Amino acid sequence: MVQLIVCFLLLVFSTVSFASDDLLERVVKDGNGLRAMSMGDAYVALGEGESAIFYNPAGLSIPGETYAHQVLDLDSNVYQRYYLHSLYTSPVGVAFVSAKNLAGQSVGVWNFGYGRRGGRGIDWGLNVKSFTYENGVRRIKGMSTDFGLKARVFSFMNMGFVAHDAYKNKDVLPTTYTGGLAFYTPGKRIILTSDWASQYKEGKAVVTSHYGTELEIAQGLRLRGGLSDGVYTAGVALIFSGMALEYGFRDRPDHPEEKQYMVSVRFGAGLETYKPQERYSLFKPDAFAEFALGDNLTSGKSEASLLGGTKLGTNDLLSLIHDAVKDKTCEGFIVKLYPSGSSLTSIGLIQEVREELVRAKSKGKKVYVYLDGWATLPDYYLASVADKIYMSELGSFSHLGIELQLVKTRELFKNFGFETETVASGRFKDSLNSESPTINAVERHYLETLVGQVYSKVITDIRASRPALNWDKANTYFDGRIFMAPEALQAGLIDSLTSYSGMLEDLEDKAPDRGFHKSSLFAFEPVRDTAAMFSFNKIAVMEVDGEIGGGENATDILFGGKSTGAASIEAQVAAIEKDFTIKGVILRVNSPGGSVLASDDIYRAIKRLEEARKTVYASFGNMAASGGYYVSLGAKKIYANPGTLTGSVGVISSRMNYAGLEEKLDIDVDTVKTGQNMDLMSPHKRSTDEQKAMLKVHQDAFYQRFVDLVQENRQMTDTEVYNVAQGQVFSGEQAVSLHVVDEIGGLYDAVDQMADDLDIDSPDVVFMRTKERYAIPFSRLNAMTKLLFKGLTLMNKLPLPATK
């Protein structure tokens, strides 16, 4: 890399440039674009937006999309006609320039460009220009190409290099080599640029240089100026949301009659508002990756809703941590933990994140955690992995344990005339159902075993992470009591009492001579290397999030929450089947289940991947139960976290009828039907014993299909399969011991093992995410409205108390 930079500098500073008044060279070789021209044409190193297609096509890799119409000689003082249209939608751009001078020469140029991020701060780009030149005597048609490189050397400096007209089919345009530098302040409020070029013509070298600047004096208002080989330039831009208006001019003091006035109107995104990725550069300081967690964490992929806000998904968080660990400049992690609540499911949510931080520590990364305000068991469980735990002196602990509360509403609704009929295939399938009867002693024992298994793993991990902790003293605090941070410090649960800023000051004091730096965890997300386009070692991740149903994946736009549609998964499978660059698939599951039919459709689709010779592993997040387990049976190997809730092999269906309520309200329902069972499942009547038996037989067919698939894919005997197929929910560790799951491990454990099995040195992990539909939960709102209406109706029917 150092040799490359040295060679580049020698090339830039040892060469000279050429300038010509010939219209063909002016339009084809020199740049076009008002912003760049207003900055003295010093644009090779800056190279942003649609102007990059002329000056440095590597800039087309920068995110954005705009359309611009520019008139570059408004009063026709120099040219009879000089305008351009340009369209840029990263990573491609297209532009058309038309110019005609007062001498009758005319040029038309079509320019097609492509830019790509190259990784590690270096971008590259290529364009192809097709031109037509006429001067009244002859007509020339030709084409040429430009190749550009742009390197972000430091967070405040770019270098650029372009070979203009490196290849051409007409020997009318000499090749020009141009190099440049660009410096900018944080936020790019001030930009300074300079370019140099080299070109030989008729055996003679002529040098030109270009200098430019841009100042943001107020939000949306930018002033520009430059010097282009003795020509002064200036301009101003007003940038609105999605639109920009620009004005500029060129002035040659020795030829005032050749002054050009330029105007431009542009529409789109990325109108000089692009801020370079914080850590996308060749040279960057070592830094800690900083992030905050609390109720903003959700399982699976990230989501956003109107009432639920933006939530970071565990799949994305794990990927960010994994990428940061691979970055040699990442010193470790600073984690700010907000209260997340203590529950059985939150343990599984936190556990995999914790294990990824354990993996980071094994690779030499440091981890520092700040507990903000209040901490329960999941929060402390994650914090315990840290090299040092900080907390405010006014912080508190509580609920250092696991509590599973089952709220049963069956009798409550029965008092109001709502009766629930439940059909369960599997002895324990309805244990966690709120509409089932109170749990019995056998069910209680099974749930206590589940909770005890998860809690035991948590305590074992905490002990391993904090070996100096006096457990005889600390153990008394794990009974759910409330206590303050100073008491936790005395017990050895935490290491320091201070504010968050105090923690940062402490870390800065301990930093080596090179200093203390921190950046957002998102800043460590790598820019995908161009080589990834041609990677033949891809491992695809397919995500099953939330409830499983038919149709497409959906996100609840109001309340938040995700659902997985069988149609979306089948579309992803079809794409993977055709993609020969994908060698393996990880089925990532965070789902409590759902429709049996939809689950079976997804299972069949996963099995098709096996026929397409794609290896499939399953990775369970915090929950992969019922249908979530069903869809994973098509995988060759299943991974689960110790605290994953999985299993629940069984089928359950329930419905509520209002027959009792209607009897209380003296509501009569008359039914005219053509068959004895036409009113089956009617909300206005109770099912007969014969109908309940019919429903049970029908449902048992689905249950038996589920059991058969478990037996077939997990290679169990009849006794073994029916032992685990009674609707029980298992922890990950229990599931491994029962052969329901193969290995304990997280997402990247599954990725690493698949890479080893497929002999892939550096797998390119890609998430298969199709566009989701946003769903308004009419069913939920409708049910709430109906319940409220019936409640109000009942209240109106009740006798009023006597008044005196």
Question: What secondary-structure arrangement, pairings included, does this model have?
Answer:
Blueprint: H1 2-13, H2 23-28, H3 34-38, H4 52-55, E1 65-71, E2 79-89, E3 92-101, E4 106-117, E5 122-134, E6 139-154, E7 157-168, E8 176-184, E9 190-198, E10 200-201, E11 204-205, E12 209-218, E13 221-228, E14 231-240, E15 243-251, E16 260-269, E17 287-293, E18 297-298, E19 303-305, E20 309-313, H5 314-326, E21 330-337, H6 344-362, E22 366-371, E23 374-375, H7 377-383, E24 388-391, E25 396-397, H8 410-415, E26 419-425, H9 441-465, H10 471-474, E27 483-484, H11 485-491, E28 496-497, H12 500-510, E29 518-520, E30 538-545, E31 547-549, E32 554-556, E33 562-565, H13 566-578, E34 582-591, H14 596-611, E35 615-625, H15 627-630, E36 637-640, E37 645-647, E38 651-657, H16 659-664, H17 689-714, H18 718-724, E39 729-730, H19 732-737, E40 743-744, H20 747-757, E41 764-767, E42 773-775, H21 778-797
Parallel strand pairs: 17-21, 17-29, 18-20, 21-22, 22-24, 23-25, 24-28, 30-34, 30-41, 31-33, 32-42, 34-35, 35-36, 35-37, 36-40
Antiparallel strand pairs: 1-2, 1-16, 2-3, 3-4, 4-5, 5-6, 6-7, 7-8, 8-9, 9-12, 10-11, 12-13, 13-14, 14-15, 15-16, 19-20, 25-27, 26-38, 32-33, 37-39
